[in-house]
């Protein structure tokens, strides 16, 4: 630590988030110069905007940082006395704007993040805890977006991700680590889905941290060539910021239980004995695929009285035991895969009312078996069912 400075000085400077180079002035200490220079940044903002900086999620990132800094200066009598001679705009006399996050409730790292200051600091004389011009520019990129000219390539990806969220194949979880930011991954930031379409070469910053240039596409048709650390800060500061998990189903079920597992259901594949022309003409292709937590025989009891079973008896052609799995999510996953082959058929129930049963598909049994294996090994997200070729096909991705 530089001579003449204490840990309290460092803490105060961190809270103020001052971001300038030290001016050579014999009359003031470097610390005082920083406080004044930080206040001057706020003054320049006030001149350009004709108002003091304000808090709010809809505000520019720098305005929000200036608002936090102005609050801290107003709260410190020492800082007020120092900058008051320069306050020709009356910023110190304004009402204290309460920040969205109470600084008293934050730990040191959280407060530094709120102020936009790096958590790890170097010696005060080196000013390494003050953000560089490059870092300022990176933070500003969060708000600077432009129209995505080739959004037509990415729109289907966002639509597919939403479907997979709806069916449970994907989930949203709190953002935690910068390492989660990789090419091809999706996030939710500022209420919008964001897709990392490109990721440049990873570099090392002056602070020894990794960074990379990204091309980020947003679901509103805009894009931003931001730095990875910019996206990281934006996700950390957004209370609703989330990462969207990969659509890997993993070992959703197994033919055998592992020690400690408890059976939680069964996938069943049924074939109908209905005399409906569409069914009788395609009997080897028409299958009902469902998931139950009871015995399959019990599930199909009285099938001839239920429109969901086409008001006819059925035969069991395949079953797969499930262990520790969310049955609803798995069933939705299966129905999404075979959705293009959904059987459109109308059946009259026993009261003479028309019913359109679901869960019936025009799919060969061997393709259902193949899908089961791909769900088991976690690769099913890469495939879709093609009714024309009666096979699972690799999905097309943007740019391919």
Give structural attributes.
single chain; 400 residues; alpha+beta; 3 domains; 7-stranded antiparallel beta sheet; 4-stranded antiparallel beta sheet; 17 strands
Would you write up a description of this structure?
Pfam families: MUG113. InterPro entries: Phage_T5_Orf172_DNA-bd. Residues 281-375 form the Bacteriophage T5 Orf172 DNA-binding domain. It comes from Leisingera caerulea (Phaeobacter caeruleus). This is GIY-YIG nuclease family protein. The chain is an alpha+beta fold. It has three domains: 7-131, no CATH class; 146-244, no CATH class; 263-394, no CATH class. The chain has twelve helices and 17 strands. It has helices at 7-16, 30-49, 61-75, 77-83, 108-115, 133-140, 151-167, 228-237, 277-280, 296-299, 327-337, 365-377, and strands at 146-147, 172-174, 186-189, 192-199, 203-204, 210-211, 214-218, 222-224, 242-244, 263-272, 286-292, 314-323, 347-348, 354-355, 360-362, 383-386, 391-394. The strands form five sheets. It has a seven-stranded antiparallel beta sheet with strand order 1-8-7-4-3-9-2, with helices on both faces. Helix 2 (30-49) crosses helix 3 and helix 6 crosses helix 8 (228-237). The chain is elongated. The two termini are 55 Å apart. Residues 1-5, 19-26, 95-143 and 258-262 have low confidence and may be disordered.
């Amino acid at each position: 630590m530089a001579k003449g400075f204490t840990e309290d000085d460092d803490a105060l400077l961190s809270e103020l988030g001052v971001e300038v180079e030290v001016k050579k002035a014999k009359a003031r200490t470097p610390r005082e110069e920083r406080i004044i220079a930080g206040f001057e940044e706020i003054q320049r903002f006030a001149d350009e905007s004709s108002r003091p900086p304000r808090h709010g999620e809809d505000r520019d990132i720098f305005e929000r940082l200036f608002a936090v800094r102005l609050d801290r200066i107003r709260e410190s009598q020492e800082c007020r006395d120092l900058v008051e001679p320069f306050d020709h705009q009356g910023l110190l006399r304004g009402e204290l704007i309460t920040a969205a996050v109470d600084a008293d409730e934050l730990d040191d790292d959280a407060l530094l993040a709120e102020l936009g200051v790096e958590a790890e600091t170097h010696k005060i004389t080196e000013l390494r805890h003050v953000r560089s011009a490059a870092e300022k520019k990176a933070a500003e990129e969060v708000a600077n977006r432009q129209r995505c000219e080739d959004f037509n390539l990415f729109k289907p990806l966002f639509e597919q991700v939403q479907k997979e969220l709806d069916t449970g194949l994907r989930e949203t979880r709190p953002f935690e680590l910068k390492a989660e930011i990789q090419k091809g991954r999706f996030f939710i930031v500022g209420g919008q889905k964001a897709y990392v379409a490109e990721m440049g070469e990873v570099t090392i910053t002056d602070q020894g941290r990794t960074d990379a240039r990204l091309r980020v596409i947003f679901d509103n048709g805009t894009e931003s060539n931001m730095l990875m650390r910019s996206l990281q800060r934006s996700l950390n500061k957004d209370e609703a910021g989330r990462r969207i998990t990969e659509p890997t189903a993993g070992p959703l079920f197994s033919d055998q239980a592992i020690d400690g597992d408890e059976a939680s259901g069964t996938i069943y594949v049924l074939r109908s004995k209905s005399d409906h022309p569409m069914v009788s003409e395609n009997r080897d292709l028409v299958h009902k695929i469902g998931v139950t937590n009871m015995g399959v025989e019990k599930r199909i009891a009285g099938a001839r009285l239920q429109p969901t079973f086409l008001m006819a008896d059925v035969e069991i052609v395949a079953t797969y035991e499930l262990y520790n799995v969310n049955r609803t999510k798995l069933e939705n996953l299966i129905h999404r895969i075979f959705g293009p082959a959904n059987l459109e058929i109308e059946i009259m129930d026993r009261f003479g009312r028309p019913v359109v049963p679901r869960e019936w598909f025009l799919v060969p049994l061997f393709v259902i078996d193949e899908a089961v294996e791909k769900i088991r090994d976690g690769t099913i997200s890469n495939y879709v069912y093609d009714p024309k070729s009666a096979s699972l096909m690799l999905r097309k991705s943007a740019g391919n």
